[in-house]
């Protein structure tokens, strides 16, 4: 039976070289029914992968402090991969393919294990603190395709009470903020994380995660270990606190965070269930045969068209017919990361990825060296082929631009040479605080334009005047066809996702239908949905 919640923990183990201590750690995991625990300072130099009863203890290739994971029986079979960060030894990642509801659906769960530098280190070398959080930010960016991301670890940071405008910290904290705490809060705020074990009211002893003593013997109790979750998954949070009664000897306490699995559908849905419109391969319209065939097929389709009293239903049926014929004649645009990618390059890429996984999973040094040499050869082949394909692609683009006329040639050249900009839009609220989530940005932008263009500031214009009556000068088929002929190719679609090319190359059959529908709208005073639009914010260069 599947558990109704996940239990994630983090612990600075202060060494796990002893078999007895590893056994004690497993007993603690069983006692608290943990699914996974992130371990810091394991002090195991080799790449450990040990099976202890039904639990799996493994340590990616991280020297020095030695980060590791202990996975419980519920997630052992779901373990997909584990690795350490490229530019630091203080960050490791474990990924799991977790079943989602029923059937063959699954989601990608990523657990990041982090061990931040101490205040003594950052006091002497402040650049170490910046380097650590830069590396952690890069890792989070690499995991952007994961459905769920959690960051656990010993950050050696005291965040203290929440300050005004800080949404990444809860109300229940301990101690006063230090320099490391400022860096942690900044990282959480910039990447949309929430410090989970600051969100629940518990006694002070259950907020403490580390205890020590001053030189004079005075005890010290600090909160420096944290579990971080994304803001969009905070509704899954059930509880988070520290536990002191564990068998594993350490000056740190075990921090456990509970997340509900029953509420998972409310924060994440599989991509396959989202309604999306496949892009049509409109490039085929450059061929005259494709245009003629599309026009002929639409002529046949319109003979079957049956007009209904509702104009909106007629427009919807016509759009559906246009897309159906276009899908048959043109097909859909093929997916490709590069405009000049080929099947051969994709096959080589898949092969080198498999070799990379084999390299990471083998412990035989000689075998690893041989696999690495084979992978290097394949990567060199990919580079040579892509270089040649890119050259051929650029030659084709240059020839296409040279074949255009003066003005079109200039605009096409500028568009080709202009670098593609990042699509991220910076949006701030009324207090000047940056909004990181796309949903929050959309709400702020929509609210702004509602205030500027809404009914409160604009006079509402009635769509019709007088009583329904026949038009003195009805819209003719020739007028509609003339309007379609003037449409430009390659323009963005509206909310109906209907490209202009479909109307342009389907006349006169479509022009006859649309003119009839519009005449019926004006004669019967039945409105059609023409007030919708797609709002695209354009970021001004150099402006926040």
Major sheet: size, sense and barrel closure?
7 strands, mixed
Query: What structural class do the secondary elements suggest?
Result: alpha+beta
Report the C-alpha radius of gyration, rounded: 31 Å
Q: Approximately how much helix is present in the residues?
A: 25-40%
Low-confidence stretches: none
Total number of β-strand segments?
A: 17
Task: Report what the structure shows.
It is a single chain. This protein is an alpha+beta fold. It has a domain at 5-271: Endonuclease/exonuclease/phosphatase (Deoxyribonuclease I, Chain A, 4-Layer Sandwich), CATH 3.60.10. Helices cover 38% and strands 17% of the residues. It has helices spanning 19-32, 73-76, 119-124, 126-142, 179-190, 264-267, 288-303, 311-329, 343-361, 365-402, 406-417, 438-453, 477-485, 500-504, 509-524; strands at residues 5-12, 36-40, 49-52, 55-58, 68-71, 79-84, 91-99, 106-115, 148-154, 193-195, 210-213, 219-222, 225-230, 237-243, 254-260, 427-428, 434-435. The protein has a seven-stranded mixed β-sheet with strand order 3-4-5-2-1-15-14. Helix 7 runs antiparallel to helix 8, helix 9 (343-361) runs antiparallel to helix 10 and helix 13 packs across helix 15 (509-524). It is elongated. The mean pLDDT is 83.
């Amino acid at each position: 039976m599947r558990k109704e919640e996940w239990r994630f923990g983090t612990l600075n183990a202060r060494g796990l070289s002893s078999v007895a201590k590893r056994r004690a750690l497993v007993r603690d995991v069983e006692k608290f029914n943990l699914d996974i625990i992130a371990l810091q300072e394991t002090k195991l130099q080799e790449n450990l992968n040990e099976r202890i009863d039904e639990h799996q203890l493994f340590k990616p290739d991280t020297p020095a402090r030695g980060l590791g994971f202990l996975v419980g029986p519920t997630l052992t079979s779901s373990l997909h991969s584990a690795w350490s960060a490229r530019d630091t030894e203080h960050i490791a990642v474990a990924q799991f393919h977790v079943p989602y509801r029923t059937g063959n659906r699954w989601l990608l769960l990523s657990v990041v294990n982090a061990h931040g530098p101490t205040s003594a280190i950052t006091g002497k070398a402040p650049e170490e603190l910046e380097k650590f959080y830069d590396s952690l930010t890069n890792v989070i960016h690499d995991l952007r395709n994961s459905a769920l991301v959690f960051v656990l670890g010993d950050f050696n940071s005291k965040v203290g009470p929440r300050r005004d405008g800080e949404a990444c910290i809860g109300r229940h904290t301990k101690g006063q903020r230090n320099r490391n705490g400022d860096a942690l809060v900044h990282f959480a705020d910039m990447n949309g994380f929430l410090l989970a074990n600051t969100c629940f009211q518990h006694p002070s002893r259950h907020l403490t995660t580390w205890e020590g003593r001053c030189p004079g013997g005075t005890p010290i109790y600090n909160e420096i270990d944290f579990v971080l979750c994304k803001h969009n998954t905070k509704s899954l949070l059930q509880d988070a606190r520290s536990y002191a009664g564990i068998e594993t000897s350490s000056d740190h306490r075990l921090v456990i965070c509970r997340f509900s699995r029953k509420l998972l559908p409310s924060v994440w849905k599989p991509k396959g269930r989202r309604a999306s419109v496949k892009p049509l391969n409109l490039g085929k319209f450059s061929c005259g045969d494709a245009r003629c065939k599309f026009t002929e097929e639409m002529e046949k389709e319109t003979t079957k068209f049956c007009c209904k009293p509702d104009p909106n239903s007629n427009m919807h049926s016509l759009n559906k017919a246009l897309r159906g014929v276009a899908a048959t004649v043109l097909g859909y645009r093929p997916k490709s990361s590069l405009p000049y990618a080929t099947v051969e390059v994709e096959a080589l890429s898949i092969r080198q990825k498999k070799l990379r996984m084999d390299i990471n999973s083998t412990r035989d040094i000689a075998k690893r060296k041989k696999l690495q040499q084979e992978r290097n050869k394949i990567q060199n082949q990919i580079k040579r082929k892509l270089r040649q394909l890119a050259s051929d692609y650029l030659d084709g683009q240059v020839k296409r631009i040279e074949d255009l006329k003066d003005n079109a040639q200039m605009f096409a050249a500028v568009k080709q040479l202009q670098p593609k900009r990042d699509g991220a839009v910076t949006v701030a609220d009324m207090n000047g605080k940056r909004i990181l989530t796309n949903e929050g940005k959309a709400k702020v932008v929509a609210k702004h334009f509602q205030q500027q263009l809404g009914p409160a500031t604009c006079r509402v214009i009635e769509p019709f005047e007088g009583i329904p009556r026949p038009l003195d000068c009805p819209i003719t088929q020739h007028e509609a066809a003339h309007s379609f002929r003037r449409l430009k190719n390659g323009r963005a679609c509206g909310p109906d996702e209907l490209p202009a090319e479909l109307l342009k190359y389907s006349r006169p059959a479509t022009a006859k239908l649309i003119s009839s529908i519009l005449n019926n709208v004006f004669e019967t005073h039945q409105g059609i949905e023409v007030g919708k639009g797609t709002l695209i914010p354009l970021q001004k260069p150099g402006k926040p």
